[in-house]
Write a structure and sequence with these properties.
Blueprint: E1 12-15, H1 42-51, H2 66-74, E2 84-91, E3 96-103, H3 107-116, H4 120-129, E4 133-136, H5 149-159, E5 162-167, H6 172-179, H7 181-184, E6 189-193, E7 205-210, H8 214-223, E8 227-230, H9 235-256, H10 265-277, H11 279-314, H12 317-323
Parallel strand pairs: 5-6
Antiparallel strand pairs: 1-7, 2-3, 3-4, 7-8
Helix pairs in contact: 5-11, 5-12, 9-10, 9-11
């Protein structure tokens, strides 16, 4: 796949299948100040996605559809929007969790998925039984310790038919590996999304399906008839995202007051001042954290390549494909 936003002929619709708003909840960094994982508003995300050429829009907040519902409450007749979610599903046997993108769900389905998500098998069974479109996001994110590596890879491949083959926050190497997955395991398909936590990269990766309506797009997505396109992640892109969230936190406290609206004044002042003081710490921590994650990704790439090669040469690849159907 070429690294670009390709020109599509008439009869295709495209959507960025992985993006976040402030409804994604708190981030795991600088917890003492309670920053959000994103400061995008649902309205801003929708408007910019459309400006950047997305025919359809979804929001995939972490374990929440509040952003989607907020948008639909303001735009009840929107025919180019569908509900999405990025579900954190637990795998205690591997001491890890994975992120599963689910699409075109209802409020009742969201509640049931959230109830089940501590049990991977029950979650996947529910998604299949209810014919909910679902795929595994950023395969390497939840990669366990090497002792569990091969078993984990087999489990994921047998559990999903749809995989994120292009994530705009991830380097070229892991993305290229995921794009080769259908070669080794026929029947597997790919989706793409920017994984944007700020508006900087929104729409820079997308999934396209041959369709003229939202329902036709979703039907093709369910069948795995997709085209993916966009730009690979770079260190600078992700670092800019991290700093963008940092600055958006301060801007929200001091100027906008859209997100942290229930904090008392003393807490806003304390956190705003503390945020300024901690800027060098955050700057250095973001650099160190991203560099460390890149080193870990390289290690996981090598493990993944080894496991895939073993599965494909052993002839078990076809069996894994059959298990997932």
């Amino acid at each position: 796949m070429a690294e670009k936003l390709i020109e599509l002929s008439d009869g295709f619709l495209k959507a960025d299948m992985h993006c976040h708003t402030f409804h994604s909840g708190l981030t795991g960094h600088m917890k003492v100040f309670e920053p959000m994982d994103s400061y995008n508003s649902p309205e801003d995300l929708y408007q910019l996605a459309k400006k950047r050429g997305m025919d359809l829009v979804t929001i995939t907040d972490h374990d929440s559809i509040d952003g989607c519902l907020s948008f639909l409450n303001s735009h009840p007749d929107a025919q180019d929007f569908f509900i999405g979610e990025e579900v954190t599903v637990q795998l205690p046997e591997f001491k890890t969790s994975v992120h599963v993108g689910v699409y075109d769900i209802t409020e009742n389905q969201h509640r049931e998925i959230q109830r089940l998500r501590k049990n991977f098998d029950e979650t996947i069974t529910y998604l299949r039984q209810n014919k909910i479109i679902h795929g595994l996001n950023h395969f390497f994110h939840g990669f366990p310790a090497p002792i569990h590596g091969q078993e984990f890879v087999e489990r994921m491949i047998s559990s999903f038919d749809l995989f994120e083959g292009l994530n705009g926050a991830i380097d070229k190497g892991p993305n290229l590996l995921m794009q080769r997955l259908p070669e080794f395991f026929p029947g597997k398909s790919l989706v793409a999304g920017s994984d944007a936590h700020t508006l900087l990269r929104l729409g820079t990766c997308y999934t396209a399906c041959k369709a003229n309506t939202k329902q036709e797009f979703l039907n093709e997505l369910r069948k795995g008839e997709t085209i993916i396109a966009g730009y690979y992640g770079r260190f600078s892109f992700v670092f800019n995202d991290a700093m963008g969230v940092y600055l958006s936190y301060f801007r929200d406290l001091v100027f906008k007051r859209n997100v942290h609206i229930h904090w008392p004044l003393w807490k806003e002042i304390r956190n705003a001042l503390g945020w300024i003081v901690c800027l060098p710490v955050f700057f250095g921590g973001a650099l160190a954290g991203l560099l460390t994650s890149r080193v870990m990704e390289r290690s996981r790439e090598k493990e993944f390549q080894k496991y895939i090669a073993e599965l494909s040469t052993s002839g078990s690849g076809g069996d894994l494909c059959m298990q997932s159907r």
